[in-house]
Design a protein that fits this description.
ATP Synthase, domain 1; alpha+beta; 3 helices; 29% helix; single chain
Length: 157
């Protein structure tokens, strides 16, 4: 029995569909959600969202937000969100380098300016990490074989 998942930003619906599992970057760590999960409302940090339908996985980069989890639905209200295949990794690399240079320069950075640069750096890094999955933005999980170590199984996926 799947669970309805909606990933939305202020501008658009990034994903909407029934999934078997969703992984969210909660403010206290990564959280997995299955159908019939207990209701909750949680803050999300910069990170990767993964949705699984059957054996297919799809990845998204989000820039914080909130998630409402109900037994039959998950709504991700993201400050920003992109599918792995939408991310321009070269542009994300450039944004990361610019943010790192601004932090190194440190010329009279007040707390607000520092927070903006730090957020830009985190957003760029997440976009790079998720964007690298573009070649396999949707991927099929391979089941571990009996006697296979967890490391070997992870290498398959």
């Amino acid at each position: 029995m799947p669970i309805l998942c909606n990933i939305v930003t202020q501008e658009r619906t990034v994903y909407s569909g029934e999934v078997d599992y969703i992984s969210l970057p909660g403010s206290e760590g990564v959280m997995g959600v299955l159908p019939n999960h207990a209701p909750l409302l949680t803050a999300l940090s910069f990170g990767e969202v993964m949705v699984r339908v059957n054996d297919d996985e799809e990845f998204f980069a989000i820039g914080g937000g909130f998630a409402e989890v109900r037994p039959d639905q998950v709504i991700v209200l993201a400050d920003s969100a992109e599918r792995a295949d939408e991310i321009d990794t070269e542009r994300a690399e450039q944004a990361r380098q610019e943010a790192e240079e601004a932090m190194k320069a440190g010329v009279s950075i007040d707390a607000e300016h520092y927070a903006q640069i730090d957020a830009a750096l985190k957003r760029a890094q997440i976009r790079i990490d998720v964007g690298r999955r573009r070649s396999s933005g949707r991927r099929r999980r391979q089941a571990a074989m009996p006697g296979m170590s967890s490391k070997e199984a992870e290498e398959l996926n």
